[in-house]
Write a structure and sequence with these properties.
This protein is of the alpha/beta class. The chain folds into 2 domains: about 30 residues; about 110 residues, von Hippel-Lindau disease tumour suppressor,  beta domain (Immunoglobulin-like), CATH 2.60.40. Strands 1-8-2-5 form a 4-stranded mixed beta sheet, with no helix packed on it. It is globular, with a radius of gyration of 20 Å. The termini are far apart.
Length: about 150
């Protein structure tokens, strides 16, 4: 067996640290609250209680909902990379769909009645806000090619 020099030992420690860190991240994710997202949606949340689907978590528990407390911190800084963001309103109330402009101010793009949906072309770096009809922020999302269902 060939003895390891100090560089080889350091590299070995770095590799083990990386593996253990990855394992820790995987375990942390496995302990996160689980939900079954309806097949048509990449993201789904319920406005009230558990919504129409028992396993859909309340919107207030999303990290994106916590952003509402710091709305001014999310001005859009769009790149040239295009995306298509789709929002489907499966709740029983109207949802407002805002773009947060480059100053962080709301710009209304759509009001979605129950059953309504919008597919919005956007760019990476843009931020979109969903609100109730009385202007209460539900969540702030990064622009991405995805479909969000609100129940």
């Amino acid at each position: 067996m060939i003895p390891l020099n100090s560089w080889q030992r350091l590299l070995s420690k770095v590799i083990w640290f990386g593996l253990l860190t990855s394992l820790g991240i995987a375990l942390a994710r496995s302990n996160a609250p689980s939900q079954s997202v309806p097949a048509d949606y990449a993201i789904a949340c319920a406005l009230h209680g558990s919504g129409d689907l028992d396993d859909v978590i309340p919107c207030a528990k999303f990290g994106e909902a916590q952003r509402c407390r710091r709305e001014a911190d999310f001005p859009s800084r769009p790149t040239t990379e295009p995306v298509l963001l789709t929002v489907v309103n499966r709740s029983r109330e109207e949802i407002k769909f805002y773009w947060l402009n480059t100053s962080g101010a709301r710009a209304l793009y759509a009001s979605l009645p129950p059953g309504g949906q919008v597919s919005q072309q956007s760019h990476i770096g843009a931020h979109w806000l969903l609100a109730t009809s009385d202007e209460r922020c539900i969540a702030i999302f990064n622009a991405a090619t995805t479909t969000i269902g609100i129940f």
